């Protein structure tokens, strides 16, 4: 699976519909302080199922919705879509019948999030597992936050193990086992 496109509408500072293309090779995002570079990475994490608003530098999940700036009024919803190339058919079986997967997360003020894959509504869990199995996702070690290297050095062995498990793509198995044990 390859990430090919990130579409944002009303997410944080991205009031208008915005698209980021991720073509083969390196994609760089440059711009002055406060222009929204970190917001883009947060959008990526959010659409993959991030459940912690703190990880979004927010004080509630509704804070990811564009809140207005200058003379532009705030919005009541935010939507992020991640487009994946699945030509190699590496997505989990239940979602693996299409060359292109469009994963969308939408939030309405005070109503929480809804997830869709190619237009069909799915659970947050399905999206989180899709990415966990692909060794990526909201907690992927490929997404390095500011300060994270320092945290890693100070981390306890169990926390470091969790990171290695994310990288190995087995954290999805762990959470399935946990779910099975609860039943
Ligand atoms: P730096 O180079 O300093 O790291 P950056 O390019 O990473 O900057 P971000 O942190 O992504 O910048 O963007 C911060 C901007 O996003 C701020 O101007 C902030 O006001 C704006 N912002 C954050 N959340 C919202 C929101 N919900 N609605 C409108 N604007 C928002
Ligand atoms: Mg930043």
Automatic annotation (TrEMBL):
Specify which residues bind ATP according to the UniProt entry for this protein.
Answer: 32-39
- Which regions span the lipid bilayer? none
From the Swiss-Prot or TrEMBL record, state where the protein is found.
Answer: Cytoplasm
Entry's free-text remark on domains: Contains large globular domains required for ATP hydrolysis at each terminus and a third globular domain forming a flexible hinge near the middle of the molecule. These domains are separated by coiled-coil structures.
Sequence similarity: Belongs to the SMC family.
Describe the protein's quaternary organization and the partners it interacts with.
Answer: Homodimer.
* Name of the protein described by the UniProt record: Chromosome partition protein Smc
What is the scientific name of the source organism?
Paradevosia tibetensis
Gene that produces this protein: smc
Shown stretch of the complete protein: 1 to 183 of 1152
